[in-house]
Backbone:
């Protein structure tokens, strides 16, 4: 199962992208303010995500609703 995680953009440099489906800082989906980003993984939560204090986990349907809100940029491709 794929999990989408909203993190602070200030935490993006702390992530090991080898443990994620998101390939780099540059490929993260960010909100309009630029203070939040979405990364994704499949299966068990990777250590790189587990160590973050400020994160929210979402499934595909939940993240679709979130990215369509005014807080996020228009309709990114998140699969």
Residues:
């Amino acid at each position: 199962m794929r999990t989408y995680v909203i993190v602070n953009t200030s935490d993006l440099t702390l992530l090991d992208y080898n443990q994620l489906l998101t390939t780099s800082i540059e490929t993260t989906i960010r909100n309009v303010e630029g203070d939040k980003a979405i990364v994704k993984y499949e299966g068990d939560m990777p250590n790189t995500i587990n160590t973050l204090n400020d994160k929210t986990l979402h499934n595909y349907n939940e993240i679709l609703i979130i990215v369509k809100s005014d807080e996020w940029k228009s309709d990114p491709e998140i699969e």
Observations:
- The chain has one domain: 2-67.
- The radius of gyration is 11 Å.
